[in-house]
Amino acid sequence: MNSREIQPKPTRPRVLSGMRPTGAMHLGHYHGALKNWVRLQEDYDSFFFVADWHALTTHYADRGVMERYVYDMVTDWLAAGLDPERCTIFVQSRLPEHAELFTLLAMGTPLGWLERVPTYKDQIDKLKDRDLATYGFLGYPLLQAADILIYRAAYVPVGEDQSSHVELTREVARRFNHLYGRPGDFEAKVAAAIAKLPKDDARYFEKQRKAYGESGRSEALVKGEGMVAKSAVNISGWTSDDSELLLGHLKGSGKTILVEPQALHTEVKKLPGLDGEKMSKSYGNAIAMREEPAVVRQKIQTMRTDPARARRSDPGNPERCPVWQFHQVYSSPEIKDWVVKGCTSAGIGCLECKQPVIDAIIAEQRPWRERAEQYLANPKQVHWIVEMGTERARTVAKQTMRDVRDAMGLTY
Ligand code: TRP
Ligand code: SF4
Hints:
Elements: E1 14-19, H1 27-43, E2 45-50, H2 52-58, H3 66-80, E3 87-91, H4 96-108, H5 111-115, H6 118-126, H7 135-149, E4 155-157, H8 163-180, H9 186-195, H10 199-215, H11 218-234, H12 240-251, E5 262-264, H13 293-301, H14 322-330, H15 333-344, H16 350-377, H17 379-407
Parallel strand pairs: 1-2, 2-3, 4-5
Iron/sulfur cluster (SF4) is lined by residues 305-306, 309, 316, 318, 321, 323-324, 339, 343, 348, 350, 353-354.
């Protein structure tokens, strides 16, 4: 790897996502998120991080396993095909800037915004065995907001369950820009930028701004934005600062210091666990990404099937069988057709039906195993990749924090 190749490509829109360190990844993680990340790194300036502080919000007493969990997880990210030359891989706790932004955002974030996040009550109900009446647990979506905003990410690839966190992030950014995006000289600078416009354009722009401010009509916003875009091309001496000022003025939001991100929900084929429930290591229904082929075979062969098929001669219904959900992820239309016909007519046995799934999983795992071997033989390489990514992330995080401190008047 030479250092020129690993520069981030800032012209591509940025995506950011994180995962809690849970150790070696399983197929549910791969199909639910990782596979998508591997695709995203081709088209986006991709930042992927280990959310180790987030793990502490629910597992604050588990010292001792975290280090292994972090590196096992990153090893699987690399095994799956995340390429450190295409994306930035880092660890949250190595960047105290996340904590600083979290603290600053916490000052102005109403408690109700956090109490209303749907995952808050859900998780408290679900994880009854843990004491989650903590400050950290309530605040964790705000920590997530800080994770996202500090990189000025345009998109956040997350599951539907995390939509409310991205929504909160947007509200937090909007409020921040509203509170701090209008420094003392903002109005004067806006006036100076407007003075660069031809008279008619200036009048048109102000008309759209008023219309948008009064009615919130998006056509007015679009027209105003169009005018700014046109001016950026046509007016000599126009600067990107001018554009930014006028866009802030137009929206009534001031300068954009923190960027409102968008959730990126990509169509993923969900893979359940061996019992048809959500795949999870703690439910004992998981297949690890680097599971031995013999174990994969044994796990699939002993998977439960449609209970109606007690005997080979009993016809079954794929809809009642978790193996069928594996076929949805792994099998071609022809094989799926063969399953439906064979199952409902008792033409095939369940072991026969499972074979293509076993073959597909083992084939899918082969390149992961090969890549992982190289990293497992040389753990220093994984550390080095994380180190490099962390430093790259730090450059971005530091810049945002300079802007944030400056906007908040904290540069004395
Ligand atoms: N909260 C996410 C989860 O539990 C992990 C996460 C933390 C995250 N920070 C993030 C995801 C920022 C996307 C962006 O899965
Ligand atoms: Fe399930 Fe296949 Fe058996 Fe039908 S034949 S019950 S789909 S394993």
